[in-house]
Write a structure and sequence with these properties.
alpha/beta; Rossmann fold; four-stranded mixed beta sheet
Length: about 210
Amino acid sequence: MAEIVALVDYGAGNLHSVENALRKVGAEVIVTADPETLRAADRIVLPGVGSFRACAEGLRAVDGAIEAMSERVLVGGAPFLGICVGMQLLADVGLEHGSTPGLGWISGEVRPLAPKDRDVKVPHMGWNEVAPLPHARDHAVLDAGEAYFLHSYHFQAERGADILAMTDHGGSLVAAVGRDNIAGVQFHPEKSQSYGLGLLANFLEWRP
């Protein structure tokens, strides 16, 4: 029997493109925010585009969704992938339009991009390198390559061990975070062609 991937539906704008990409690599996807379905899922993917505050408030507005995700991922050990703002929501707090609490699964803050070079534009938009750090070069999900980014805020992780990969846009930026059975990517695998599909296929095979 195929494993079920729960794609969390809380009004995130990239929901259907992520669903299509997951199905393309063979995933059995259920688009849902139902707590009982989340508790029964084999894997969970949290998408997200837009502002940290809007996404955090949207997720909290779905009764029982965060509790169910926490139970399935933090207690049950289900593999989890956060994408773009879905990755940023792993932080303790986001500083977009004020201070908004995140999930607090990976310690850190989401801060505005502030490139040292004034000629470097914000948002960070387009293709850029994903460079795994030495301690993450054998990570089952993440490979080196080029991916599509679109963001104006970045994850500033508290612990270096939680940073899986970096990129560069007027200075070093976190491209991926993770620990144990949790992974998050700042870029959009669903827009990253063969590299992104490869990452999603890796996620489906991941046995943390």
